[in-house]
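Minutes, project check-in
Item: structure for the 157-residue chain
Input as provided by the requester:
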Amino acid sequence: MRKIFAYSLLSAVLAAGACKKSAEEKAENDYQKAQENVRQHAEGLREDKQHVAKEQQDVAKQQAELNHANSQLAAAVAEYKRVVTEKLARMDSRINELEVRGDQKAHDTALKLRDRRAELAAKLDRIEDRADARWEEFKTDVDAKIDQLQKDIDATF
């Protein structure tokens, strides 16, 4: 009986040791899995940071291109305004020539032409408001009206 008791005790001690070892192994496995998970997340985070950095570079490049395009547009608007202002000044002198003719018909025609010229000048004063996506539409409209006004002035002489 003592032998049975001794064997039972020895079996219990060994079984307990074996259970403890498998619990340690399980904890070790869990720890290794956690470490691997942390490594994977760290790698993913590094990749995300690289992606964000590239996106920021792309945004900065696009912003620089936009700024360049805006300055080119501003220069084009300024040049267009200068050219149209010169045309309007030449039209003014032609309208003045018409008005000094002295007859009533010439005077009335000069008044009408001057009104149309004033409308164009007012539109030109609002050019900065139109320097956007509708710029081409604005420019086409002003060009057509200037051409028509110039033809009408020339037709009076």
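Outcome recorded: The chain has a mean pLDDT of 83.
No further action items on this chain.
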